[in-house]
Each structure stands twice: as structure tokens, then as C-alpha cells.
Amino acid sequence: DREEPVEAGVRALGGLADIVFECVGLPGVIAQAVDQVRVKGTVLILGLCTQPDTLIPFVALSKEARLQTAAFFTLQEYRAALDALNAGAAE
Fold first, then answer.
1. In this structure, is residue 32 part of a structural domain?
2. Considering the domain boundaries, does residue 59 fall inside one?
3. What distance in Å separates the CA atoms of residue 76 and residue 10, rounded to the nearest whole number?
4. Which of 4, 69, 70, 1 is nearest to 35 (CA)?
5. N- to C-terminal Cα distance for the chain?
6. CB 42 within 8 A of CB 20
7. What is the residue range of 63's domain?
8. CB-based burial label for 86 (10 Å; 0-12, 13-18, 19+)
9. pTM score, two decimals?
10. Where are the beta strands (DSSP E) in the chain?
11. 34 in a domain, yes or no?
């Protein structure tokens, strides 16, 4: 749902996510990812946003969310990470 992406994600998952991958790289999407993650969940910031962005730190702090960044990985590394997540090997 383009109009309400956070709500659409929560509906599709039946709740907030343990891990949210931000791969878009546009302003506002990191804040949406924080909104979609559960308490003590992780937001992986992978999108390469080159513009100023706004994030309200209190939202992430109140959830004790972990914000993790990474860049310039190979397709094989992304596949291995997704396979590990799907197999339940990663937290």
C-alpha cells in the first residue's frame, strides 16, 4: 500500500517485524522502518540515501531498536544472509 506502507507491512506480518531491511535509500524510509520494527528489533539500513533525512530518535530509543548499517556487499553475501535468516540461524 503506497499510501500507508507501515500499516500495510504490519497487517501482512500480523504484527511488528523482528528485522526490517531498509533497501530503498529515500528520505523518510528509515523512519518507516523504525515504525515497523518490534521492541528490541533490528533495522538494517542498506539503502544509499544521498539526501538529508529525518528520524525522530525517541521512536527508536523507546523501542530499544538496533540500527545497523552496511554497504557494498555482493549478491552472494545478501543471499547467504537471507538464507541464514530463513533457516533461523540468525537473530
1. yes
2. yes
3. 29
4. 4
5. 28
6. yes
7. 5-86
8. exposed
9. 0.78
10. 17-22, 37-45, 66-69
11. yes
Q: b vs e for 58-69, b when ≥16 Cβ sit within 10 Å of the residue's Cβ?
A: eebeebebebee
Distance CA 25, CA 12 (A): 22
Please say whether the beta carbons of 43 and 32 come within 8 A.
no
- In single-letter form, the type of residue at position 43 comes to V
The residue count for the chain? 91
% of the chain surpassing 90 pLDDT? 68
- Report residue 57's pLDDT band, with 50, 70 and 90 as the boundaries: very high
Q: Is residue 68 within 8 Å of residue 91, measured between CB atoms?
A: no
Residue 72, domain member (yes or no): yes
Q: Tell me, what CATH number does 32's domain have?
A: 3.40.50.720
Alpha-carbon gap, residue 90 to 87, rounded angstroms:
8
pLDDT of 91 reads: 57
Our CA angle for 36, 38, 41, nearest 5°, is: 105
| Tally of structural domains, the chain | 1
